[in-house]
Sequence to fold (121 residues):
Amino acid sequence: QVQLVESGGRLVQTGGSLRLSCAASGRTFNPYAMGWFRQAPGKEREFVSSISWNGGRTNYANSVKGRFTISRDITRNTLSLQMNSLKPEDTAIYYCAADSGAVLTSNPDYWGQGTQVTVSS
Fold:
């Protein structure tokens, strides 16, 4: 099985930046896609960003385009999300996810425990 552990979440001010990381351990596999989801209290989980197994394709939710950047290091089994120009509406628990295959699906096979991002106004 694959374990995913997120890190980097904390309290930041509006307009600030934050970098989230996700480390995969256990028995990883190739190919596999990875990505990020987030969920705010009282709201549905929403897709944030994804990246193909070879890093050649990336996708972003409209709400984060131009502000967030996803990247991965296949050799180290790590995933990152650089978040700039943060807004209060970005406040949520951010979850790392992974899926067997080249493209992340809407219901990934593996999930991390989440890391809290809070943007103060």
